[in-house]
Specification:
321 residues, alpha/beta, Rossmann fold, seven-stranded parallel beta sheet, five-stranded parallel beta sheet, 12 helices, globular, binds (2R)-2,3-dihydroxypropanoic acid
């Protein structure tokens, strides 16, 4: 009997796919940073028993309708808003993601972005490299303190809890808003549950880590930013579409908030002329939340194990429920 066929939508290191290759014939899109074109993805999905996808691949009804052999999709991300999970379930296709292995790495980045935004790290690093440093100045590159401030977390799942833990190391008071109470975070990190408005009004840093859903889409509007402290910083390490980007730009220009640290954007990759990049108060990163070498390799291995398990008729480790 011939082996099942698995298509991987980016070029990944061979080693991370070695186990999967024992179970399946694996083919990969040839580029690491350039997404697999839609036409190719549709073509491959028509034949594939398994797909290893990236968060930039749209796995929608059109694709799933044609993917007659498809049994499993493993998304190289914890978020899976790029996949029509409901429709996949109706076709008995298992969808898997990569939770847990990326929790601390993503929390590290979210906190680093908070710190970089508060202490103007990127700006200060450019300043010295551009030869602008002519001497020490009393208020040169003066940023904002982090320790002792109030950290407001919107989306208190595993990554949110890990960010809260980092905040306690800086003697921060932790507020959070989440659909349901997170008692473990309350007990372990003294986090206090609050309404969305309370988090906006009382926090010095508002960090968004909520998944993108119909409910959270564009939840950060001009009106929301208006409720924040004038000196507050907004950090987004979840999905760009939770923010109305035009509103964020206006909010910064109008001085409603002091700045933003953004790892994610409504449409990625953004171009250098993106309106938010023109603002000196914005620190922007190219969606690298989970991007440490160790973690990305673990995510690839987890995807490979999940696909192999489903193709062997076994339960995958991390199906999306
Ligand atoms: C995820 O896994 O959803 C992250 O956004 C990747 O960095």
């Amino acid at each position: 009997m011939s082996k099942p066929f698995v298509y991987v939508t980016r070029l990944l290191p061979e080693d991370q796919l070695a186990k999967l290759k024992e179970t399946a014939n694996v083919e990969m899109w040839e580029k690491e940073e350039e997404p697999c074109p839609r036409k190719v993805l549709l073509e491959k999905a028509r034949e594939a028993d398994g797909l290893l996808t990236m968060l930039s691949d749209k796995i929608d009804q059109e694709l799933l309708e044609q993917a007659e052999n498809l049994k499993v999709i493993a998304n190289l991300a914890v978020g899976y808003d790029n996949i029509d999970v409901k429709y996949a379930a109706s076709k008995k296709i298992t969808v898997c993601n990569t939770p847990d292995v990326l929790t601390d790495t993503t929390a590290d980045l979210a906190f680093a972005l908070l710190m970089a935004s508060a202490r103007r790290i990127a700006k200060a690093a450019d300043y010295i490299k551009e030869g602008k440093w002519k001497g020490w100045g009393p208020l040169q590159m003066a940023g904002m303190d982090i320790h002792g401030k109030t950290l407001g977390i919107v989306g208190m799942g595993k990554i949110g809890t890990a960010v809260a833990k980092r905040g306690t190391g800086f003697d921060m008071k932790i507020l959070y808003h989440n659909r349901s109470r997170n008692k473990a975070a309350e007990e372990a990190h003294g986090a206090k549950h609050a309404s969305f408005d309370e988090v906006l009004e009382q926090s010095d840093f508002v960090v968004c880590l909520t998944p993108l859903t119909e409910e959270t889409k564009e939840m950060f509007t001009y009106e929301a930013f208006k409720k924040m402290k004038r000196k507050a910083i907004f950090v987004n390490a979840s999905r760009g579409a939770v923010v109305k980007e035009d509103d964020l730009k206006r909010a910064i220009e109008d001085g409603l908030i002091a700045g933003a640290g953004l790892d994610v954007f409504a449409s990625e990759p953004i171009q250098p002329d993106h309106p938010l990049l023109g603002l000196r108060q914005v620190t922007a990163l190219p969606h690298i939340g989970s991007s440490s070498e160790e973690t990305r390799l673990k995510m690839m291995e987890l995807c490979s194990r999940n696909i192999a398990a489903v193709l062997k008729g076994k339960q995958p480790e991390t199906p999306v429920t």
